[in-house]
Here is the input.
Amino acid sequence: MATVIAIPTRTRTPPKLNMINYRSPEHADVPHIASFSGGRSSAALTFMAADQGLLQPERGDIVLFANTSAEHPGTYEFAARCKEKLETDFGLPCFWFEFCTVEDAWRGEYRRKASYRLVKPIPIEQDADGYRSSGELFEELVCLQGMLPNPHSRTCTAKLKLYPSHELLSEWLGRTEGPVHSGHHWASSGHGRLVDPVHVAELYVKNGGTASKESVLRRAEHLATLPAARPTQRWQEFTTTHLPIETYPTTRPAPMRGANAALHVRLLGLRADEPNRVGRVLSRTLFAEGATTVACTVKTQPPGERPYFPLFDAGITAEDVAQYWKQQGDLDLDIPQGAGNCVFCFMKGTKQLVTLASSQDVRRLPNTPTDIDWWADLERRHLRTAPKRNGDGKSHFGFFGVNDALFADLINESYTPNGRYAYGTPACDCTD
Here is the structure.
């Protein structure tokens, strides 16, 4: 009888990061900030860096997750498990935060302004300090800025993720005990709000705004239903990792702009198969590092931020990331192929959005951004119209820009199949 020789199965070598090749020696000593988008690549980067000692709590390193209130349910579940593991196994503080608005004075007028708050990995329906997941932050943002995000102005990325993270880092790098009170103290003393929606609408018209007074009033009235201030928060209340409070005395927030902007390293989960995205960030960095005056600034990146791409430098691709998560057991992200964290993101293109809307694999929750009807309703209520610059009639401004497809058109299948945004637009750098 012939002898059968078993041939061992070839397995891929587990992906591993290189040591960070710092562009300047001082970068090795400043706090490292890992941007965790809730996706597989940024999570793989964070865990690999923590496991290999590239992230060090004693240096002031932290992990940040920005909630947009429009994430897939699987993202929230995955991000919560990641936070627990990072804090328990590696002692790395992982802070969840989200955009909010407060009332404050500016040039003699009280107005709503953008701020942020720390949140716990618990739905707000269960805990007042929990996260929002029904699109509330999109609604708040649109009411504040008076326009919908679109491919030409991705304010959802800039104002729900990047700008709030800059505010958070200002206080973290300043070694404060936590985010200080934001907004006026009048509301906290029980006297209510100081912003009058009617006055907001009248002032808008007086200043020559092109939107209707009724729409401005409607947005201002919605904002008036929200808290007028954010109370003082403490870092320790939002992480299970023990923070040495004695090393975080109450001091001034660190400057994020100007010549003395706080230096810090930002680790981004862009892979080796995403060279164009890496190139865009590095190009932006050249401008940001020199933007040290108010007149010359790159709002999406503080001049003190130094981005690094460990996955890219190690040659790690999407295939390697998938292999990494196969080795992690049940920790993997549970999201259908193509759905992504933000299921109906307008950057995906109309063809993919229509396919997702009819897919039986996507987990839908009514009246939330996991349902295309939610996007259509938000767009309908906040669609801006203005007289056309040339000719008669009006132009409308929706999620797909000027006079293009609307989400209602996608639902009714009355859109142009091969329109301008049929196949999506360049990658949304939400990991920035």
Q: What stands out?
A: The chain is about 30% helix and 15% strand. The longest strand covers residues 109-123. The radius of gyration is 23 Å. The mean pLDDT is 88.
